[in-house]
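Hi C.,

You asked whether I'd gotten around to modeling the 727-residue construct. I have! Everything is below, sequence then structure, no commentary in between.
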Amino acid sequence: MLNDQTFEFSQARLRLKDSLRFQMRQSGGSITYLIEDDITGRFFRVGLAQYTFMTMLDGNRTVSTAMMKTSTLLREHAINETEAASLCKWAIESGLVESETGNSAARRHEQHEQQQQQKLMSYLNPMMVRIPLFNPDTLVSTISRFTGFLISPLGAMLWLTVVAFGFFQLLSNWDAFFANRVNSFGAEDFIWIAVTWVILKLIHELSHSLVCKKYGGRVGSCGILILLMIPMPFVDVTSSWRFDNKWKRILTSAAGMLSEVFIAAIACYVWANSKPGPVQYHAGNIIITASLHTLLFNINPLMRFDGYYMLADWLEIPNLSPSGRGWLKGIFNWMYFGNKPAPLKETAFRGLAVRIYGVLAMLWFFTIAIGLSLAASGLIEGFGLIVAAIGIVMWVGIPLFKLCKYVTFGTDTDRPNRAWFAMAMLLTVCIVGGFLYACPSPTVVSAPIVIEYEQLSVVRSNGTGFVKSVHVTDGQNVQAGDLLITLENPELEQELKSLVIDIDISKLRINAFFNKEKISEVLLEQESLASLEKRKIELEQRIGDLIIVAPQSGEVLARELDIVAGRHFTPGTEILSIGRPGEIQALALTRQTDIDWVAANPTAEVDLLIWGRDKDSLIPGKISLINPRARDDLPHEAFAATVGGPLAVVPRSQVESGSEDQQEQDLMLTQPRVPVEISLADIDRATLLPGQTGQLIVRARDESIGTYFANNLVRFIRANNLRSHGL
């Protein structure tokens, strides 16, 4: 019989708990049963065959007898012995049935110990911890008396109207919103974003509760879910599974997202119709927070959030995720143990949906596990590494340990085919290892480029003054010494006039002292005159610096010359540039991770792909100069994402303290890059124009793809830990 040490299911006598209630459902053209435990408030779903078998467990029949009766009723649709054993084990672990020893004190103590161990393991998971707080059902019932009208056709019309109008306002002002709110997002904004996010999450979870209560459900509990050490509220609305209409269940799942979108639409209207200030700032935070979190998490069906339950109810596949995992597990057992997988209960379109979901969910799991582990390693100095290590152990280490234990010892009801497993693993290692070793890595090192003048003279202001007149235009050809811009400084000119008068007076005084033969006074006045004349020379030089001339012949490069009139320039301010037509080169900004390889292969073939030209029409080039260090300044504005370029930039004043006085257009790269100059052939110089953009392509990287991935992973981890932990 079934006891604590063994699973002899054929002779075990199991009995369904009296607290269970069953409700039949039509789901996807098949019959399912909803199981509700009145004591624990938990819900489960099983198929017709499982329900029929479970109802035969009355404590008097053995499992073998129950299987025979099920086979008599359902014939070929009945479950087999393996499925019956798995179902019995699951039912016992879920607390749905009791064994002959299930009422004993020892058995109850063991069940309590197992529950405590499961709870402890959930608390040890640093990536996701669920902490229940209290039962909010009474509070939600009170609030629902005043909000019930929102969950109605009238409320739906109100929602559609506000959302359509609000987001139309945002789209009409999208350029301004992107420039003033998205593009200017800085580190100091995270505090207000966090406050906004907490408030929105409270409204989100309250919306789930209100819709659930509207349709007769109950809110079992609420609390805090800590995801990657980020707290967020949660409510338990699993009672919505009792709803007989799938659209009610879908609306319950979607309520949180709908409320956030509604609030975001109101924020769009507020932002578009308010002036820059606190109101517009916080409205922008609401728009960003409500939309991004909804898109990345809540609506994502590959995570067990709102989008998953909406998809499962819409497809009418109650156990979409378990079915997908079960199908993948069956494929794994077939490939590595030779066990023929059980056929899917879902057929046709729903069967295809389960298979696709299983594959996508598995890929997403590995992606999010790796991503969260890397993100956790950089959160808190030192402690982040511990969190990442615990996450890797729980997500990867424990499943591998269970697999090794199963291969080594098997289970009481299943013995693995170890020979098949060894051959399958050997074949897998050979295929994967051969691919990583033999397959070459991506053979292209690429970087964005801009065509610019090879000899470019930057014209800067040598003096301090206001622009009086501009004598050239953008694109005009000039000769060396031609007048470009004239500045004026009334203070200097007035000082020079006063100084000239003082010099004349000083000369008159010298003559007067000389006529009176006052030699000592003559000497003193001559010293004063020399000082005045020296000051005059300095002023004349400073006033001469107000006239700006061309340092070389070439073409004037300055797009905003027509608006510089009246502007105030200080010494060193860049005004324009002059380049020589025909003397152009390509400037590339290479990643620091690629520059070592580029520097080690200066004679490697370099191709340039110019945007707007045929992709097959590559221009050859030759590396002429590699900058000795990485830079974060922007050598050409065409690189900036703010003007359609490929590289992310931020205003330097947002990153560096003490740079508030710099001009707004002083941008810096978010990731430093290494400038590489590339010379061009004469025939290509004649066809290219300064300002054209494209991509540098360096071919023939010779490492394997395994080495490539390993080196990049190690480099990323080292850089991340050096930045966060100093390791």
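If it helps when you're writing up: The radius of gyration is 38 Å.

Thanks,
B.
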